[in-house]
Amino acid sequence: SSGNVRAINLTASSDCIFNDTRILNNESQIDFYGFYLQSSSNNNVFNSCDVKGNSALKNLSAYSISSSSVNKFVKCEASGNNNSSTQVSDCNVFGFRLDQSNANTFDSCAARQNSGRVNDGTVSGFDLSSSNSNKIKSCISLGQLGLVATATTAGFVARSGSWNSFVDCEATYNRNENTDNNAAYSRIGAGAIFEGEHGSSMLNCKCGGNASKEYSYGICLCNGTSRVCEHCSIATSEFFSNNSLGSNSGYSFGIYDGSLDSTAFIKANIAFGHGYVFDGTSVKDPSEADMNFFIQYQEQYETMNLANIIKEADISNFNIIAEAGGKDL
Length: 329
Fold this sequence. Notes:
The protein is mostly beta strands and 329 residues long. The chain is built from 1 helix and 38 strands. The strands form 6 sheets. Strands 1-5-9-13-17-21-25-28-31-36-38 form an 11-stranded parallel β-sheet, with no helix packed on it. The chain has a 10-stranded parallel β-sheet with strand order 2-6-10-14-18-22-26-29-32-37. A hairpin with a 2-residue loop joins strand 34 (278-279) and strand 35 (282-283). The protein is globular. The protein starts with a strand and ends in a 7-residue tail after the last strand.
């Protein structure tokens, strides 16, 4: 198509059921959307649907849910979709995308090997923006691939929303594989990113092998444009070997909480393979920014105490930065 493509477009449409629906090998000269829900398209059900092998020159989203709520996706898949050329403007590639949408559920869904040349945009398997109380359960995000030096590549992303939950999920081998040598680049490869979220949680998940040349994270909790991550919980999850690609100049973290005044609750997680890593037969000392656990902490409330935030952690490779005004640790 010479214009935007919306293979299946639902506008203010509710109570529809899609079973075993496949959207395969379409091309768009601008944006491509497989399933596109908008304008209060609520209470729809999608069972065993596939969006595969589609391409766009700009934005691509296999499943796009905008201002629509209480939809259910079961065993749906987005795989092998791609943005095929570098654009001057920012663009994105998403497997499952929610924008200003609430109380949707994703059960046993998969995003696999979606890729893009997206400049300052994002390639992610599951991406939530300004959305609340959505549940992502037993879902996997495997092998999303960013190919431009300024792109963010991640398995799961939640930005500026609240009370979203990720349970029994896995994010593996999501990478920005651009290796250009330029100190100004800010490539990111992550299993999960929470940015400006409130009350969202990750429980019993696994994030491993996610990487880029600059910044590699199992999970990254960071400031949003208008607020920090607050009251989020990360529990009983595993973060392993999310290490920087190429040279050793990048930064690698299992759990990274860089949100000042954060009140995230981090309990009984395992993070390993960051910092103390093997290089051939020898063990390298970690740099000050290669850590299994990295917490940036500033006392915000009189009752706030680091011991109430981080529980049951392996502290053998733990780095805490206490900002000015904080208590002694």
